Amino acid sequence: MRNNWSIVIHEVTQTTAAIWFGTLKSDMRKYELFALHVHETKSMGAGTESSAHVTTIEIDGRKLKKPFKGSGQRFYGVEFLQGLKPGCCYKVELHRPSQDIGLPSFIDARQLSFGSFRTLPEKLTTKDFAKPLVVMLGSCFYPDDDDFAVGQAYEALLASGKEEEKPDIKFLTGDQVYLDIGLDSLSPVYQEVQERIAEDYALSWLRLRRMLRHGGTWMLADDHEFWNNYPHTTGKNPYLWMLHANRTIKEIWEKSALDGVKNVQRILPLRQIDISEQISFLLADTRTQRTEYNKSKPSENRFMSETDLSELEGWITTLTCPGVLVLSQPLIVKPGGEIDRNLADYHEQYSRVLEALSKCAHDVLVLSGDVHYGRISNISLGNSGRTLHEIIASPMSNLTGIDGRFAASKSKKIKTFPPIKSEGIPKQEVNYPEHFWRVSSQRTGGIFGIGDYTKTKEHFSTLAFSLNPDGQVIVDVKTWLLKEKSRSGKPREQFKTPNEVYSITLQ
């Protein structure tokens, strides 16, 4: 029987977890009663067996909410688990208990969905003492040609990977959905706009379900959570014509897109994760509050609110340990210009971030996506002796057809940094580690025609955080090609030398 109910594991801490459950399909029944069963387990993944029962939460189905206010019979809820053990694995099952629906017979009890997760460790340790904290990094997912490759690769790592390859949590840094691709974007009917956005989410979440149900998830929004180059509507994208033609369509589109960002992806402006006093993560949303670029009023251009930017600056300048800054777009870039604005286009706020980094007492690692290529690079942070490292993982699944041709890219080097004058960081050449700096590309299509272009291979990365014998944080980076399998069943590793790992020491 078809089952479109899902569990998504969102934010986890050492003792808590946020469990999203529901359905994004419009033809599923909302039952009067649900039950969430929580068990301890030895590991994460699809085949994990439950052990000690932790709790059962009964849920009143009438209290479930609509993720999209103007669209269909779609429902969701969020339950917050508390009192969990640090560094422990749990399995969560969503059940429909037997219920009387006013007919001669009852609805039988049934498991609707399941998931698993590991709580964060209290502290990082050396690799030979305990499992590293493994973060999966990915972005840009277009479902047309995915064929569940992302979920299969993710589950294969959980099942067959080494301890330093099995993801505990994941950062999805934008374009988890594409709301602006396809001729249905041209509909002038208000209800069809709302339904299209909801269905785009339903399809992407179905294809990503095998990944989203295992391990804590933090998501960021980028432009395609709204439309290309959001909030701008410049350019020649034919799918955006209705945004120009009808102001009401634009308002409905934007409101429905924000529903998805808030209710399905649970994105907030800033979220901080600290592991003891050894490593600090900060996820910063630079898209949903972004203003349209106005050349005549540069002081009004922003990619985040003044309050959030001040908090970001404070986090950078007061770090007492290495930091990991997670963004939807890279920092080591040149300005994108009118048709594809990036952080460097917003000179004033971008300069403030660079100035804060120049004052940082520790190394910072930036994780991002967006650009449809994978890349590893680093630069020196002024006179502080510290280093800014950057890892880009994009895409998890390429666009197809003519859309794929215009979105496709291959790994590019930025020769010098910063792209604008900065008080704290001198102009310098960007460093790219040999053999590791890029993800390989491939040619698609024939010799002639729109199908002939080069694109980066679909991938995501894993980053294993541990300590070396001197107590410094080590990050072992691996990149996985999602549509190529090794003999073990795992996705194939990108880097040329077998089993070779790119390691970063953060100080």
TrEMBL record:
Domain of life of the organism encoding this protein: Bacteria
Coiled coil: none
UniProt xrefs under InterPro entries: Metallo-depent_PP-like, PhoD-like_sf
The name this protein goes by in its record: PhoD-like phosphatase metallophosphatase domain-containing protein
